[in-house]
């Protein structure tokens, strides 16, 4: 819903704007971007504040609260219950994110609230330390959000929840009081503190003294009782742990400005024991037996999720040791060395066998294999959003927990309940703690469906309460569960929650509506709005989304993996800018808001959406790395097409110069020297919309196709038949030596190389600049030319990964009415795939190589064949986790993109190339990657074909 402010948002915006050094935004794009978190809910904020530092954060909170406006702190926005939306959203993740200290002696860290967990872990790891609570969203969840939600992770069975690992918090109350609360303290001393701080402690102490019995009866009964507030932390045996009480208060008490955290020593060795079971209930039945052996983790996944993994990941999981079964537990055992860790695992397995458990098991010691198996678990929340048949599934009842010994009963009861409601879902979770996550195929798109959802959730709550459980086991209550707290805590418990809220925040400024005084759990469901009904005519088909652009825009449920701060291909522009707007999630959400139409009102003409998509590199990293395969590159192409439809004059100049590159190249090929002289001038760059910092690549004196036509007929007999080598524009006009090298290698391998009978083009440059009708025409024309090739069943070999990826995927989705496009996709192979299919023995290159995987290769084509071919050719390949090179076709050449393009390259790739030994070959199959390397380092990269050809002794 659009919040109707009860205060003057404009006035507050101005006041904040003049008081703060950070940004204060009330524009539609900012408000739309922050209207959702990782939940089913949408509440459009009135303002979005991004403080410049911790003092700015404090000032923002104090001024907002003083104006009577709701203060919603925000970290990574990965909350799954609607904990981080509405009012004035204050985003601490962007700038308030310093690690201030790692004290190895005392094993503590001091952090600002916007620090992302994996950044803290990376800082602590060299000292053999870690933060004990490790939610699977830790690559983008912030410590501020983790503290507020009392996040837990796989290791909580051994190391506890966030609350168990917080020593002290510097906080700001809504009335401007800044104080430090600690995990233990002498009550009397604290009560004597002056001013509001002492008053706060006196109130807390009177509260606990007056309500001890109810607190003992209702709160802190098992570790995953995360719902409500952790009132038991104030009890004497908990050491009057006020910091612990703040954990899990969902930003409803105070803002965390700084945290002192305990760090846990990492075990010297760990083994992963993967247990396989016929079903989840059977796996739950062995929880107590495994827990007796003090595992570090005990996490569950099941076949519904594993079946949804991309094929290669699934195969890798099986290769890594996923045993037979339909449900699995990932049990990690630690020890002072690998022998001790393995011994513990064997003892646990022996005990399981003795108990009659039907578990199959495999012991995984290789860290790489362990990482593959853990990915099945960490991607689960995203994977579970689609059922195997493509139907949508949602959170909402995703986080209940029961005491672990009641888990099997809970699963039985839930199966029964779901059967009664005709629902299904994929489950996963922290079985060692009795906490089970799931996404269920609720119908959240219709009022009747939402009514059924409410009814189900109420029944499920009763089931959980009957088993002594909690409606939230770690995600918090937010908007999804706060209304259910009465069923769980009864009226006396509910009254205590309200009293506690009043002690901290009598004016109800801090995240109102969460835990206390909640709105109905079926209010503000985001998908009930008009977005779902907008049936837009699109150029691409969306085959995995029922050909429905609106359904494609519902893929992003906000889990925020694209906001990870390190590693991976997704999302390079977020990693460079750290702006929500430049993340996959931000873009996907703005596209959804465009369909919704109440905040972003211009449809395809929206400048907000255009600007958010502007820094998308179209690397397609999200297509493969996002667990729900959001494909922003395709959506960007679609949007750009419609945005400029009928307004060619409005397009950036680069769309003409680079979008039409194949055509311009044909002309340039007639007089390459003249064109090269002119193209590098400042005027030409300006006219072409090209960044002044970029050197324009030179056209070759002779194109690859001309060379091929004039070369003498090959003398070597072909033993493996004919292949069509795709003469992409980059190879043909700009790097023909690669085509020549490929011909040499393919002929040495026994193939007869042929080229198409006429000019062909995959349409890539028109697709990436959103000129989709032209792209379609080019592809159709090429399909006609390819007809004889397809009739002959010839493989089509691509050298340039971006063009090969279009042939393999995009062309078929764009020209979906022509079966030939699908046939081309079937016939297209990469250079390495073709050679690995044959039993050809490549020459022994015997070299070290630093290899850059093209992002489209990563996302669409796969890189396994390249790795295998390199290994076969004796190339010792180092393939860094460098992501997209940053140039990404036209992106890095375009005016205004240079800085981001360069920053993306400087993340990993360019420093790695600079650091490489001169004797190490630099290998990059993508023209963009080679260009970025040439522009940013003194090295020239080679295509793999060139490296192999040079070992054959071929001059290319
Ligand atoms: C795929 C996925 C997997 C997840 N796995 C887990 C898991 O394994 N374990 C788990 O516990 N959770 C998990 N979660 C839930 C969520 O990621 C965690 O609760 C996480 O700690 C939230 O961090 P955040 O930075 O995104 O916080 P946000 O969502 O931005 O905010 C969370 C809460 O913290 C408050 N807040 C934020 N900053 C402050 C501050 N400075 N001061 C006061 N209040 C503040 C917000 O107002 C909000 O109430 C998962 C979520 C997703 C999407």
TrEMBL record:
GO terms (BP aspect): lactate catabolic process
SUPFAM superfamilies: alpha-helical ferredoxin (SSF46548), FAD-binding/transporter-associated domain-like (SSF56176), FAD-linked oxidases, C-terminal domain (SSF55103)
Cofactor(s) this protein requires: FAD
Coiled-coil segments: none
Domain 4Fe-4S ferredoxin-type stretches: 605-638
Domain named FAD-binding PCMH-type: residues: 41-266
GO MF annotation list: D-lactate dehydrogenase (cytochrome) activity; D-lactate dehydrogenase (NAD+) activity; FAD binding; iron-sulfur cluster binding; metal ion binding
Keywords of this entry: FAD, Flavoprotein, Iron, Iron-sulfur, Metal-binding, Oxidoreductase
PROSITE patterns in UniProt: 4FE4S_FER_1 (PS00198), 4FE4S_FER_2 (PS51379), FAD_PCMH (PS51387)
Domain of life: Bacteria
Alphabetized PANTHER family for the sequence: D-2-HYDROXYGLUTARATE DEHYDROGENASE (PTHR11748:SF119), D-LACTATE DEHYDROGENASE (PTHR11748)
Annotated protein name in UniProt: FAD-binding oxidoreductase
